[in-house]
């Protein structure tokens, strides 16, 4: 450490203040003693001893001030200078390496309508999408940014964690047709605000505001754009604000997986398509929703046909749509066209390396082809990109079980156990999450708590075939065979039709010799 750093550290620990305070007090004591001691005829060595003690106490007081500090909590040990230096130096080094990395924090909805959260989230994602095509700019992915929606980290800690130099944050107030968006760009290295602006307008002005914010960032960071990048920066997915709004609302429900939410997503995606027949993002979303409906709730081939048609239309209107290719991959997965599915999801990943859905589909393809080691990598990647896509926890656990990797299986279970309570705090109506948490608690041996979580999921969607099927799996695993078979019958009566999966589901191995289970399978 150089001389300036030492001086800075001395100031930080209040050494100069401690020294001055001590000398003043010592001088007062000496002055008072020089008057008092003679008055009481005390020997002269008393004064000499006192001065000696005061001299010895000076360096001791400085050492004490260096090591400890006074705080509202009492006397505390001062943080090591060496550690502080390492932390600061490490952060500076990270910023130098990633001197063009930007994090767009989820915009906060400060309006009175909490249901408008989908709109502020959509605004965040749209700005990230616009900026992600700029080669000179390293931008955190949409899924990475959204993980910090409710983070309590201060901006410097967040920048250090994400190894970013720049941070964009803002607020959104949406009331009826009126819109107020405030935006701030911060240079974390200099801990200074590059610019801040408030945009006001009508709801339809959101597209222009997105473009203005993106251009302002480019100008502030002095980025040089190619002609292609300039065009992409100004490109609008749709000019119809109602279609845009419907698409955002649909995506809010898409990955909750229950039949009710998926049907609602389909309805909203269709509304967006009706309003803008060339809206590629809405077609890609429609494909995902229909593909998931077919796979998990209703084996009607019309859903799969609709999913394939929608993904193809999305590709026609936007050949670079990563989501269109990943949704097409899900279609081929369900058609058992594995080669075509692999090609589709790999194309999706090449267009957007942060497409978590594509990694999830490819991971499932790897599992089908007995490549569980590769599946683990893709599932882990999907979870890293979107921690809220919690269905991956189950896939990851099954892959580790197949690999007999007990160590990583246990780590995944423990990670899920930490994730679900916080997730359910913010999404209490996610019935599948309650059920997955129940499976996690069961694995940890907390059976009574597991039963309570399973019951919560059932009560929220008591007629959803997948919810009831999951309940059947759970009760079979804990040895309550009659309850398991009863739920399985109800799941089939409510529309579960994936009999091939049911017959090979390892959760039901304990039921294979049960007469009621055998009769149920024979009737199908």
TrEMBL record:
Q: Which keywords does the record carry?
A: Membrane, Repeat, TPR repeat, Transmembrane, Transmembrane helix
Give TM regions: 20-40, 46-68
Which SMART domains does the record match to this protein?
Answer: TPR
Q: Which PROSITE patterns match?
A: TPR, TPR_REGION
Task: Report the Pfam families cross-referenced here.
Answer: TPR_8
Q: Does the keyword Transmembrane helix apply?
A: yes
**Recorded superkingdom:** Bacteria
Repeats (TPR): which ranges?
322-355, 356-389
Is Metal-binding among this UniProt entry's keywords? no
PANTHER family linked = TETRATRICOPEPTIDE REPEAT PROTEIN 6, UDP-N-ACETYLGLUCOSAMINE--PEPTIDE N-ACETYLGLUCOSAMINYLTRANSFERASE SPINDLY-RELATED
Q: What is this protein called?
A: Tetratricopeptide repeat protein
What is the protein's species of origin? Gilvirhabdus luticola
């Amino acid at each position: 450490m150089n001389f300036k750093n030492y001086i800075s550290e001395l100031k930080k620990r209040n050494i100069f203040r401690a020294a001055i305070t001590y000398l003043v007090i010592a001088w007062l004591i000496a002055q008072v003693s020089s008057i008092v001691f003679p008055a009481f005829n005390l020997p002269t060595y008393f004064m000499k001893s006192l001065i000696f003690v005061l001299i010895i106490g000076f360096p001791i007081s400085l050492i004490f001030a260096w090591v400890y500090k006074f705080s509202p909590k009492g006397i505390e040990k001062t943080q090591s200078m060496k550690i502080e230096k390492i932390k600061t130096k490490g952060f500076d080094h990270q910023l130098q390496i990633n001197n063009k990395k930007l994090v767009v924090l989820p915009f906060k909805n400060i309006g009175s309508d909490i249901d408008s959260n989908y709109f502020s989230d959509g605004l965040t994602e749209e700005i990230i999408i616009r900026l992600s095509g700029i080669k000179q700019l390293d931008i955190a992915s949409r899924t990475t940014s959204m993980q910090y929606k409710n983070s309590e980290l201060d901006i410097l800690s967040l920048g250090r964690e994400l190894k970013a130099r720049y941070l964009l944050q803002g607020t959104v107030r949406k009331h009826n047709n009126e819109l107020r968006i405030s935006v701030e760009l911060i240079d974390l290295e200099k801990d200074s605000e590059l610019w801040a602006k408030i945009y006001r307008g009508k709801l339809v002005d959101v597209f222009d505001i997105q473009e203005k914010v993106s251009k302002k960032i480019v100008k502030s960071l002095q980025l040089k754009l190619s002609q292609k990048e300039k065009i992409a920066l100004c490109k609008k997915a749709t000019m119809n604000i109602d279609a845009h709004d419907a698409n955002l609302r649909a995506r809010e429900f898409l990955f909750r997986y229950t039949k009710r939410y998926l049907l609602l997503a389909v309805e909203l995606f269709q509304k967006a398509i009706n309003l803008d027949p060339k809206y590629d993002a809405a077609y890609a979303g429609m494909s995902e929703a229909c593909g998931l409906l077919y796979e998990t709730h209703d084996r009607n081939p019309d859903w799969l046909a609709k999913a394939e048609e929608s993904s193809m239309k999305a590709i026609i209107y936007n050949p670079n749509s990563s989501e269109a290719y990943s949704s097409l991959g899900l279609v081929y997965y369900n058609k058992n066209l594995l080669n075509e599915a692999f090609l589709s999801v790999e194309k999706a990943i090449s267009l957007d390396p942060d497409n978590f859905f594509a990694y999830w589909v490819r991971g499932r393809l790897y599992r089908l082809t007995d490549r569980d080691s590769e599946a683990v990598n893709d599932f882990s990647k999907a979870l890293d990109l979107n921690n809220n896509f919690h269905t991956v926890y189950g896939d990851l656990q099954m892959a580790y079980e197949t690999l007999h990797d007990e160590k990583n299986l246990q780590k995944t279970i423990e990670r899920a156990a930490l994730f679900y309570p916080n997730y359910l705090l913010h999404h209490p109506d996610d019935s599948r999450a309650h059920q997955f948490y129940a499976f996690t608690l069961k694995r940890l041996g907390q059976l009574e708590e597991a039963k309570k979580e399973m019951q919560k999921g059932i009560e929220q969607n008591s007629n959803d075939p997948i919810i009831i099927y999951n309940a059947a799996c759970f009760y079979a695993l804990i040895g309550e065979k009659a309850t398991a078979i009863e739920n399985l019958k109800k799941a089939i009566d409510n529309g579960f039709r994936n009999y091939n999966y049911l017959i090979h589901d390892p959760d039901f191995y304990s039921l294979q010799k049960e007469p009621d289970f055998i009769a149920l399978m024979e009737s199908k």
